[in-house]
Amino acid sequence: MGGASMANDGKRVHDLIVFLAVLGAGILLVLLGVSPGALATVTASLSGLYATWRGGGGRPTP
Fold this sequence. Notes:
mainly alpha
């Protein structure tokens, strides 16, 4: 019963860590003067990598 809740808490912590890391990287890139187009490309790429790592790209069930 409690095991599933603990697993979800761990996923939330990972989500928070990744979110803060990507946010920090985005802020750093903006401060360094990276163009908005390049920043959008980096953000989309990181989002895709994270979704793949989390298994978010699975097949939909019929």
